[in-house]
Backbone:
């Protein structure tokens, strides 16, 4: 019995049907489109069984599947090593074409090259599209073709290019939804994938406060942030719709979205930043890397209320306010002289919005070792940050209920830590 000829659309970091570029073009195919998602063991095997991000992916896929069922279709969910799964799929189906959206992280690039090579060896066409950014790879570059390593000129070039195309094109595939493969695939439970529900959940995004984002963004007690970042990370929202909207509503918010693409471009152009300082002159810094100090930072028991509140918020919810992230990161690298890589790895475990490029970029910014970084002699004073951005202690008391009961003394004196950090950096910077 001959197998049905089909096209696959491979979902990855684009968990939505609307304004999905690769899906839009897949549905133009002359073959029925089977939607596919692979739970990749190369990623899953490193995660705890109650990882909330896996739960969010599963929940997002369930919503997609519900939409597809209304169209007489369903999403095919697989679990395994990606190349092995594709080998099985090519035996199970008569695959004519495969469509997907690009991912720019080093592991994803290597994975996709291997799958494209496998498909090519079977004479199967594959098509990759830009979807998670407005501008990718080398689209924003200097006049000599080299990548920008300073944010402001990158942003200016980005805006110039965006304004020449604004609004960014959106891809409505609703009139081609009839081309989804008609048929049912059993949708697995979270337990069948090998995971369990987490007490930590991704919060729905909320854009109602973006109009005055520039006035409220630094005050964690206000809780006026959009909670968009996990949704951007996993593609449950369209970056084109969001940027087109932000460009009309608030330029400071738009700048934050441009920072996201700046760090993606840095990671793509300089993949060494995942494990090495962008500024190699900083490789000689002698970090203290005290494990007990690191434990106190992780648990939010440093004696600095702003730092501790931030870490407790992260541990309890998977979120941390952006202003507070800067304070806790600076404290780890400068006050405790612990390598930024320790903090980056801890955030990677805990953050619901963990994005490799932004996480590495922002940690190196805080440590002073990255591109366009804060200068090494800039050491945030957590007490001054608290007075400026949480003067009444509302945010702090939310996460430190014992704050008014004689909170513990700071684990290190700020003036001493600042002098020690500056001296250590000066001695360690390679000439």
Residues:
């Amino acid at each position: 019995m001959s197998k049905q000829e089909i096209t696959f659309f491979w979902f990855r970091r684009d968990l939505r049907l609307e304004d999905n570029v690769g899906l839009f073009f897949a549905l133009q195919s002359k073959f029925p489109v089977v939607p596919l998602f692979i739970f990749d063991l190369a990623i899953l095997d490193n995660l705890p069984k109650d990882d909330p991000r896996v739960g969010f992916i599963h929940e997002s896929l369930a919503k997609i599947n519900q939409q597809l069922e209304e169209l007489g279709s369903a999403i095919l969910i697989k679990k395994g090593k990606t190349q092995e799964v594709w080998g099985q799929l090519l035996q199970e189906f008569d695959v004519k074409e495969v469509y997907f959206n690009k991912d720019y992280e080093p592991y994803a690039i290597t994975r996709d090259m291997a799958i494209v090579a496998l498909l090519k060896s079977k004479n199967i066409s594959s098509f990759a599209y830009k979807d998670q950014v407005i501008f990718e790879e080398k689209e924003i570059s200097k006049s000599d073709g080299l990548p920008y390593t300073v944010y402001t000129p990158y942003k200016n070039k980005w805006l110039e290019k965006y304004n020449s195309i604004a609004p960014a094109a959106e891809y409505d595939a609703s009139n081609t939804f009839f081309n989804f493969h008609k048929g049912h695939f059993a949708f697995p439970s979270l337990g069948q994938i090998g995971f369990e529900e987490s007490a930590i959940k991704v919060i729905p995004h909320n854009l109602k406060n973006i109009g005055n984002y520039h006035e409220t963004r630094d005050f964690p007690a206000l809780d006026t942030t959009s909670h968009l970042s996990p949704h951007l990370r996993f593609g449950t929202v369209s970056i084109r719709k969001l940027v087109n909207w932000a460009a009309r509503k608030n330029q400071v918010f738009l700048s934050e979205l441009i920072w996201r693409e700046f760090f993606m471009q840095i990671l793509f152009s300089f993949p060494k930043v995942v494990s090495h300082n962008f500024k190699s002159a900083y490789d000689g810094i002698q970090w203290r890397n005290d494990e007990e100090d690191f434990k106190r930072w992780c648990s939010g028991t440093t004696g600095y209320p702003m730092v501790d509140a931030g870490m407790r918020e992260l541990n309890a919810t998977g979120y941390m306010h952006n202003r507070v992230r800067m304070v806790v990161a600076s404290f780890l690298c400068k006050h405790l002289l612990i390598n930024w890589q320790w903090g980056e790895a801890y955030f990677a475990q805990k953050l619901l919005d963990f994005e490799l490029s932004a996480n590495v970029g922002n940690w190196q910014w805080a440590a002073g070792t990255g591109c366009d970084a804060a200068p090494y002699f800039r050491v945030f004073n957590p007490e001054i940050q608290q007075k400026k951005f949480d003067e009444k202690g509302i945010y702090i008391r939310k996460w430190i209920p014992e704050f008014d009961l004689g909170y513990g003394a700071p684990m290190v004196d700020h003036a001493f830590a600042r002098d020690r950090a500056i001296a250590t950096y000066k001695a360690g910077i390679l000439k």
